[in-house]
Amino acid sequence: EVAVSWRPSAEFAGNVYRAEGTVAASPREVWECIKPVAGGRRTKWDQNVKDFEVVEAVRDTVSVCRTTTPSAFMRIISPREFVDAVLMKEYEDGTMLSAASNVEHPLCPPRPNFVRGFNYPCGCFCIPLPGEPDRTQLLSFFQTDLGGYLPQTVVDSFFPASITGFYSNLTKAVKALKA
Known about the structure:
Elements: E1 2-8, E2 15-23, H1 27-34, H2 42-45, E3 51-57, E4 62-68, E5 80-90, E6 96-102, E7 115-116, E8 118-119, E9 122-129, E10 132-142, E11 144-145, H3 152-178
Parallel strand pairs: 5-7
Antiparallel strand pairs: 1-2, 2-10, 3-4, 4-5, 5-6, 6-9, 8-11, 9-10
Helix pairs in contact: 1-3
């Protein structure tokens, strides 16, 4: 189960989405499925991530990454590419964070056949639940400009369903990881 809410973004002419749910797995297992690393599990289970590459590793916890998405919504939405600065952090309480925001990078000029999208400050928190080592609160924030010429009504109808699908598919991926 996931609760999704939204409000107008202060960053661009779209919405910021907040999603919160509980996943039946440890924070480490959830993190293993969502962490933004090349060759990671996310390209296997997340229907909105076709490819993920690290363009430049700035530090162990900071990198510039390119994410590509497949076409969506019965091909109404063309494939997208996003170039982001990504930060990964683990806090003393065991919370793990992946945060990102769009950047330009000389090694990532726009590519043909992809529409350049922009992630404004966004991220996922894997939060341990006290006394429940096999459950994780996942708190996510998304504010994505898909770019191109999509009417905002199409984008607004796409995102909540996409986010609930993310949580549903993550739950399945975690179960497969534990099996």
